[in-house]
Structure formats: C-alpha cells, structure tokens
Amino acid sequence: MLRLVAHIDFPFYTPKDAFPVGGAVRDLLLGRRPTDLDYAALDPEKAAEEAKRRLGGSLFPLDPERGHYRLALRGRTLDFTPLEGRLEEDLLRRDYRLNALLWRQGAVFGLLGVEEDLRRHLLVPVREENLYEDHLRSLRGVRLAATLGFGLPQRTREALARHARFLQAHPEALPARERVKEELARLLLSPKAAYGLRLLERVGLLGVYLPELVLLVGLEQGGVHHLPAWDHTLSAVHHLLWLWPEAPLEARLATLFHDVGKPLTRRFDPEVGRFRFLGHAEVGAEIARASLTWLRFPKDTVERAAGLVRRHMDRLPEERKALRRFFLRRQDLLPDLVYLMAADRLATRGVETEAWEVLGRYEEALKDPLPQRPLLSGEEVMALLGLREGPEVGRALKALLEAQAEGRVGTKEEARAFLLYWRGGREAQASGTPDHPH
C-alpha cells in the first residue's frame, strides 16, 4: 500500500495524467534541485507532446515500442514512460525504495520503509529480484550511495554481492558498456568517489566492471609506501579531490589507474631487500588505455588519462629553468599531472608538506606563463638557417620554445641569435669538434 511521505510543491511543469516519479522527487525531499525529471504517464507520447507545446525543446522517442519518450530542454531532460498498472505496482517495479517515489497533487507517496531510508540515509532495494530486471541496478546503487552520501546496510550489500557473483558467472548479462561508463563517470565525479570505489570493491562489483584493478587489492608495496596498493589508490583519489575538488574526469580516471601496472611489474630486488615496480607507469598507461577504451570512454578522455598515468612518476627537476622546461614539455597534461603527483605523494607516506611542495613549485615556476608559440615562424626559421621543410625545422622551433620558457630568449632578435648559436652547436656535434660552446 502506498504511504504518504511528505507534502511538497513540485516546482516543475507536470502534464495531465502524468506523475513525477523517481530521482527528481527523491532529490526534492533531500533538498537538492533535480535537473532530469521522470514521469510515469497513462499516455507517455501524449504527455510528452503536451510538455513540448508548453515548454518547447526537442522531443524524440527513446524506445517507441515500449512507450519511452524524451523532451530535451536547455539544461534539463524530461523522460516519459508508461504507468505500469496501478501506481503502487509501478513503484514496486523500481530499483531502490528511495527511487520508488511519486508526486501527486501536492503530496509524495512511497513504499513501506522509505521514511526510515530517508531518516537514516540508507539505500535499500525495493525487492532483490528487481536487480535482475536491469543488471545495471547494482552498479547504480553503489553510484547513488556515493553521489548522495548514503550508506548501504548489510542486507543491501549482501544483495549486491549476490548480484555481482551472478554477473561474474554470466558475462552475457552485463549491461551495455555505454551505460556502465556513464555510471562509473558519475561515481568518479562525486565528492565521495573514494567511498564509492571502496563499496564497489566490497560488494564484488570492482571485479565485474574494473577487473584490472582487483589485482591491487591486498598487494603489499613496502618501501616508502605505508598502504597496500588498492588502499593507496583510494587514498590518492580521496586526496586528489581534497587538493582539487573540481578535478575533471580525466584526472580522476588517471588517479584511479595510476598504479594499475604494479601487479605485472612487481619484482623482488635482493639488493634493496624489497619488491620494486620498475616500469609500472608505462605498463599502467597501456592497461588504462585498453580498459577505458573497452568501456567506451571518448578517445580524448582515454588518451589524456593514459598520458597522465604514463607521466605520473616523472621527477621534478630542482633548478628553475629545468623545471619550466619540464612543465613546457608536459603542458598538454597540466594542471592534472601536478595534482596527480601531489595526491600520489600524499597517499604514499601521508606527509602533507610533500604535496604542497609539488603544488608550490608548480605555482612558483609558472608565475610567468609558459610560451604558447615560438617567437619565429617556421618560414622565418627556414630562411634564417637555410633549411627546407622537414624534421630539422621542427627541432629548431622546439629548441626555441624551450629557450623562451627558460627565460633565455625574449625578443625576435634574441631568437635569431639563439638559433644561429643552436645551429652551430649541432654542426659542431655532428663533425665531432670538441671546442664549440654548448
């Protein structure tokens, strides 16, 4: 039987014979402003068309055979689906009690137990068998726990763990990769991403969706590390968001995958008496690229995350000119790379000053912005050095840009003098002349 949960105003347009349901109603009860609205309607197509006449936007069918329609507005989407039987029957088919809510005539109605879920901030399935009606629902539960900051009581964890074992045994039941990608991205973009990732591991879903990372669980590192590899990874994700709350998805993905190469590169070194992980950044970059590609992340996202993983072990030079040259060569990965390095250091030994040192040196080195282009064009370089189009022109432009970053060159006249000097050095090196200045 439906229960009256609360009396609230629904601040959005509601077509006739359509009922706001699910996450939008939940968010209003939690004091959040929803952006995506779901409606259960007696006639979804008619309700969607009525909303379009009133609100404008673009209307298109998501699944016309099942009666699913979407109205896309600027900054908001309205989804319309058929009302499945009576209102209570419709709610009983949903995933979690917190999503089994509907608004009608100024009141919110839900299922038995939802008041306790709201009061205690817990996530409980409507029925365990509902998880098997859409196999994405267990992953969505973990994502909701992270994004809402809710807990998973023991019986919910047990239900999700059983579903995870089912998916491990029946890979053909796995949801579409695009849907998995969206849930993982939303989990990582939440402020409690590390908490969500821990839940993912605890209920067994890490092995379902990110099996490459399972090998980190319990992997002892030794040396300067005070945590096993998976705990270190979660600590790094947590500290990335502490240092940089607005970190983009690519930085979060790179932090999640930054040590994924360690299980494959772990070797005992008798000279130092401990295990080492030589080359794990390069191996990890390839694993991250393969995993994120499989999950259908956009190519730009994949390449940036893999590039960050590959470079996260690079050592910062001590001297300022060399440091500016270091950042220039990695300019396309900034500032993500610096924050990843800082979070990694903080998670390694828990020494906060080491993280701030990395960020402080970055800010100090870039008080003067890095140059974005050489002072001379390719044509000017060819005329000055008597070169034809080819790799040597690119090398000259790169050397000039680095000299600008170091502060050795600031005008076109200095750029010409530098390139003549640079050419002389290359010619002397090629001929083996020992006394040419370098």
UniProtKB/TrEMBL annotation:
Family matches, as Gene3D superfamilies: Beta Polymerase, domain 2, cca-adding enzyme, domain 2
Highest taxon, organism lineage: Bacteria
Gene Ontology molecular function, alphabetical: metal ion binding; nucleotide binding; nucleotidyltransferase activity; tRNA binding
Cofactor: Mg(2+)
CDD domains per UniProt: HDc
Keywords carried by this UniProt record: Magnesium, Metal-binding, Nucleotide-binding, Nucleotidyltransferase, RNA-binding, Transferase, tRNA processing, tRNA-binding
Name recorded for this polypeptide: Poly(A) polymerase
Organism: Thermus parvatiensis
